[in-house]
User: What shape does this take?
Amino acid sequence: MAKRILNCFASDFSKINKQDLLSAIAETEGRTIMAETIGTVQPIMEDVTNAEVASCMGADFILLNLFDVDNPVIKGLPECDPQDTIRLLKKLIGRPVGINLEPARINEQDTSVWALTKGRQATAENAKKALEMGVDMIMVTGNPGIGVGNEVIISALKQMSSVVGDKMILGAGKMHASGILKEGANSILTVKEIEMFVEAGADIILMPAAGTVPGIDLNWVKERVDKVHSLGKLSITAVGTSQEGTDKDTIKAIALLSKQSGSDIHHLGDSGILGIAWPENITTYSIVVRGIRHTYHRMAASVNR
Assistant: This one.
């Protein structure tokens, strides 16, 4: 497949493989939009999934947070066999779908929405289940307060890469400290850790977008994006600190900084409103990095194409 993400229709995505998808992103030259959504909370459109809302606002790629491979739930999705949850969602949105998995221990005392479950742990077994369900990408990362450090990300990557690395995109990184204060701000991701992530099997490296985490500026991000590219891999700059729910001027500023950094994929998190970015910010961000033409093309294209 020689198409860019910008030119892909649902029929293209339905038959795309790992290498073709990576190439389609690379050839789009920093104009791929990824929206993260949560399926376990009430959708903002009640009987329409948050993933569908994000897709119609201009997202090229959906990343599901809090998706449990043992107990798959996406509220707003028509009833189906649990094993067909991802496949049905992909049919409805006509986009690739990834999920977050977290390399951390389960804390039985945690009763928050972010509380880790067995089916959301970053293990080889869960990676195999995700592949069988039709997931296109696994992002090895950590939710707020879960306590995910870069050392355990590397270990999880090695395990998953050995079983699904040739068939599924593996991403790795953090949008924030994830409860490890010594790995906050400048220490969220070092250049050396990027090398270690890649050696462990990562195809895409995730890092905070400039202006989203204290101390993270354009120079910090650009140095790491340049390193990722020198290793022949792709980068994601993430807006994962609830600024996906900020005002339009701020989201535009973040988008321009991410574009300047050389980022391949622009991520908008799931907590502008709990479960999804503020929908208009997905469109606003998209227009900044790729203009009205490509944004409206993505928004308008039918899933029947």
